[in-house]
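Aim 2, interim progress: modelling of the pyridoxal-5'-phosphate-bound target.
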Amino acid sequence: MSNYKVFDNLAVSESGFLFSPSTGESFTLNPIANQILHLLKQGETINQIKEKILSEYDIDESSLEKDLDDFINQLINYKIVEEK
Amino acid sequence: MDKKIYERPVIIKQQMGFMNKFGSAPANQPLTHIDNVSVVEMAEKYGSPLFVFSEKKIRQNYRNLNRIFKTRYPKVQFAWSYKTNYLNAVCSLFHQEGAWAEVVSEFEYERARKLGVKGENIIFNGPDKTIEGIKKAIEEKAKIHIDHFDELYDIINITEKYNLKADVGIRVNMDTGIYPKWDRFGFNYENGEAVQALKRIISNERLNLVGLHTHIGTYIMSTEPYKIAAQKLVVLANMLIDQYDIKLDYIDLGGGLPSHNTLKGQYLEAEQLLPTLEQYADAITSPLYDLNLSPSEFPTLFLENGRVLIDDAGFLVSKVLANKRLSDGRRSTVIDAGVNLLFTSFWFKHKVRPAQVSSTYTESATLYGPLCMNIDIIRDDVVLPTLKKGEYLVIMYVGAYSVTQWMQFITLRPNIVMITEEGKIEQLRKSENLDYIMEQEILPEKLKEFSI
Ligand SMILES: Cc1ncc(COP(=O)(O)O)c(C=O)c1O
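Predicted structure of the complex, ligand included:
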């Protein structure tokens, strides 16, 4: 599984508001998306993030993997992360 | 320690240009229970998709509309529009409330008769009446509303051939300011055709002219067309009184009152946009007081409302099959109910609500049915909380023209249940099975075998 790097200049607030100075776009994140993005920012790998979510939340691994894939793809599309 | 409730991670791009003055679009609140019965439990017991009707709501709707009209014009008689929803249970419910039957085909006529409605309490409309159908309706004293001259001559021939007398009325079409004009049914008012037809009827002693009928359209969004329609029928009725001393038994203003579904392309919600039922009733009843009659001679006002009485008493429960991203990043949700079950989604933005309490985070999504066809869109753009595969949705206000216009396609049509006033769940129609579908087919002998 690949790992991802969050672009440096992004501003993410505690409440899940995200602003990208390079594109001028802003986004909102739900709490779990916000948590994942913060973990990515801290340099955690997708596997580490997966483990963390699985231990904290009531969700099975394969559903989570699908959702994570989808979420990461969106982050790539929105130019918020890039593959390391 | 219990684990936290999971929801899908969601990121939503803010589109400043599209934000309206109310902030972001309101989310659709969960609808976990219908008449205190759990939606999820019903779906698990009867399968998904599932049509659910509320007896309580249907009766409330009927009593409310009946009261609104009766307080304005005491002689009111509703006739349930069978095509709107001809499930036996639904028809019987309206008949219990006192409604007659309004039918537009022999099939519907026979349904009403089988259910126990007497011919004399049936209004027979529509352009497609067969000779046998007309004969039977005459013998059973149904009120036949003549649609065109060919039908008038058919009726005359039948009464002569079988020595019968028929109770008839005519359907009148007219300019009520509605575009497009509904001038394909009945006799036209403006060009004198209606008067000509009336004269032809009056001159025939086998025909007993009992009423005038019009149905100006469906989902009429303002009161004025009804007022014009009632005024024009009153002009005809007064002409009959003044010139022929004919006092009609009834004037029938048809149906067409809108339900609280919002049309596609309509920005405001239907509730905010539409006149009240009281305002419609004022428009329909006030012209009737211009009839040149003493109060005891006033005709009965017939009404044939369909959608307004049942739409909000019907729900379609559907299960989420999958979530996808479209190529442009928009979310799409695929559910197990397609447009073949919900024709009305071509016209209406049906409200959609989740059936379980879920995340407060919402995202706009396109709601697709399972039909493998591009047209299979239940909602182009609906704001919903993130829903997981296997969770349920409730599509709202689907009581009218759904279970009569639905099509069997790819899969089988589902169960229909009703929640009774006592809180019981009664099954009204069983889901179809393969045998039921195949039963009507005939496979030619020479096509019975093949080897591939
Ligand atoms: C003759 C006639 N009466 C009544 C109705 C019921 O109309 P609605 O459901 O708009 O009240 C219809 C429906 O098109 C109709 O054709």
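Chain A has a mean pLDDT of 87. The helical segments of chain A are 31-41, 46-56, 61-77.
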